[in-house]
Structures
1.
Amino acid sequence: MNKCLACGYKRENFDIRCPECGSFYPTIAELIAEEEANEERHSFRGYCKRILAADDKKQELLNELKQIKEGLSKKALFTIFLMIAFIFALTLSVL
Ligand SMILES: [Zn+2]
């Protein structure tokens, strides 16, 4: 990270704190973890994990679908397709 997240001050050396506002720069490990968490949240695996973890799976599925619909893209449509296939498979395994 070569920019302060708090104030946008350009980082010129490897200081751990921003000389401008005094807030800490995130470490690379933190950034990687954040990026991974973010990817996971928006991946098919993330959707399935949340749905399976929810008490009311149907309600959670509807919530996820609503969220996807709000930021609809080709990738999101593909995710919906995968989710429907997943639910279908889940239903078959239950029956
Ligand atoms: Zn700063």
Note: Residues 74-94 form the longest helix (21 residues).
2.
Amino acid sequence: MEVKIKVKSVCYGFGSILLVMTGCGQSIPEFDSQSAWKYLTAQCSFGPRNPGSEGYAFCREYLTSQLQTTADTVFHQPFQLANPLDGNQYQLANIIGRFAPEHTTRLLLGAHWDTRPWADRDPDPQRRSEPILGANDGASGVAVLLEIARILKENPPPIGIDIVFFDGEDMGLEGQPRTYAKGSQYFATHLPLPEPQAAIVVDMIGDRDLSIPVERNSMNQNPVLVRRLWDLAGDLNLPAFENRILPNVYDDHIPLYEIAGIKAIDIIDFEYPNRHANFWHTHQDIPANCSPASLNQVGTLLVHYIYGQYQ
Ligand SMILES: [Zn+2]
């Protein structure tokens, strides 16, 4: 993701209370933060997952097999991408899992699964050419969506859900936004599934010090969905969600809207860890700087939205 202006509590989930009842009697499954955390650390155990790396190949298999145990259908959307620095060509793939395909009302949930090939923001110039681990920038969004996939398998949702793990998000050059988000650009140009009514992208939502203001493009692209989600976060006492608007981020939600017309928003904490320090695109993007409690805030919100808002 590319930020135009460089800028970036907790609800613990325990297994003892499994269901929450809404006013209309629909039960809402509990998001299991420890399960989500395992999905984050599993991805990081493969090492950096930048295109062409060993970790990338292992993670591709892992994500595919995880979705195969939960989704109704799973498929890859392959595409080619050249590294903008050296011109090397890579065969990449968006990884897609479809849930409840019989529903015509559909929501897309997306996260990028590739990690950045360079730590170009690292304070140590000697290590800027090495790939980052991407615990937050890559693994965190995917982890929350893998846990939601597990929940969707056990609790048939009232709407159709398409989970898309976008590839090629983070091989871009700073100052050139459209060199990022290549997987979502390809997806939006060659839409491989029925067009969803809306999309929610999650990115960098594992930060231990989580704060999620409204991203400005999201407010322009789908203000109704933004207001509904941030209101719901208030009702659920999820303190990371803040009622202020901060600068534009070029992330996977932009191609979805600009190319395919999908009303997409981005849930993102782009101050990692906070406005006084930076772990983004550095070798500090590791599990120790993330937390299960942060994954829980975003996962809880999405689960309540899916199961509680479409009655
Ligand atoms: Zn990134």
Note: The chain is about 30% helix and 25% strand.
